[in-house]
Amino acid sequence: MWGIIATWSMSLDSLKIAGQMLAAGKTAGETVTTAVKEVENFPFYKSVGYGGLPNENQEVELDAAYMNGDTLAIGAVGALKDFANPVSVAQKLSQEKVNNFLVGPGAEKYASINNFQRKNMLTERAKGFYRQQIQQDSQTKRPYAGHDTVGMVCLDQQGKMTTATSTSGLFMKKAGRVGDSPVAGSGFYVDSQIGGASATGLGEDIMKGCLSYEIVRLMSAGKTPQEACEQAVFHLDQQLRQRRGTAGDLSVVAMDNRGHWGCATNINDFSLVVATQTSPDPIVYVANAVGQHTEIKPASPQWLENYFAARGAAKQ
Q1: Which CATH fold topology does 3-315 show?
Q2: What is the Cα gyration radius of the chain?
Q3: Is 48 one of the annotated binding-site residues?
Q4: Annotated active-site positions, please?
Q5: Which of 135, 193, 229, 278 lies 20 to 30 angstroms, CA to CA, from 285?
């Protein structure tokens, strides 16, 4: 049994490639990095890779991570500038014995020494969004509310599992800010003997609950992926609201080592994409918070039409 699950509809095209790779017997490691790189390379996704929105200094700082579920090896980068495909740098770091999480100039030096592609990741389109934000009233100069990290959990035919994340983080964030996406246990976690999870939303709040590790822990205790996702998300949501009156966006996806999957969210219109051996054509689902549960439905034809229309318009 193989399978792959990803956050957000922007992963649809990449999961078509991933599904073909897994069906052909490719490894989870090769597949997940290939799929994330496809998202990183598309210039009209405002929250990942090339074309990602910049920080307050009009610099694109990228976070990414990779984890091997067999060995529990982890690699991550934070606030990486001027290099394409940070997920590939993270995967390379996971192969090192130490120094697995590098940030800023240290991450850039490592990428340069290992001959990763240098690239100006700030596009003219992203500059336009930055200028618009600067022109607005100072009271509205706040981080972009989308928090759209691409996160994937992958299971190959040999039973190996991996996970990977990539994001440009909050729009107009402080220089050097790093969210949950490259932080093991918060933005991602995977164990091939159990399963894996990945999170997207407000990193500062996701880190307060170590959401991804908590989901894997709950699965190890016998919860299904869906049960684990909902218990972890809504417990943290409730705790944050009780302690301070509000909670940021919390959305997660998970898959166990048998290809069963789940998701949970405390917002509306969280989208995810799933491809499995039993349903190899990727399916987009839309999830909505309903009380302490998540309602998950396949995206309607109209929803998909609107998505492709917006995606096409971005190219023009």
Answers
A1: Glutamine Phosphoribosylpyrophosphate, subunit 1, domain 1 (3.60.20)
A2: 18
A3: no
A4: 149
A5: 193
Report pLDDT digits (tens) over 37-93.
999 999 989 999 999 999 999 999 999 999 999 999 999 999 999 999 999 999 999
Per the CB < 8 A criterion, the answer to whether 8 and 148 are in contact is yes
Tokens of 217: 């822990």
Contacts of 41 (CB under 8 A, 6+ apart): 49, 50, 84, 85
3-state SS class at 179: coil
Q: Contact at 8 Å (CB) between 151 and 163?
A: yes
State yes or no: 200 annotated in a binding site.
yes
Question: CA 87, CA 164: separation in Å to the nearest integer?
Answer: 7
Contact at 8 Å (CB) between 259 and 2? yes
Among 119, 159, 114, smallest CA distance to 22 is for 159
Give φ, ψ of 189 to 5 degrees: -170, 145
| Residues 131-165 pLDDT 10s | 988 887 555 555 555 458 999 999 999 999 999 99
Three-state SS annotation for 182-197: CCECCCEEEECCCEEE
The response to whether 291 counts as a known ligand-binding position is no
Separation of alpha carbons 283 and 16, rounded Å: 10
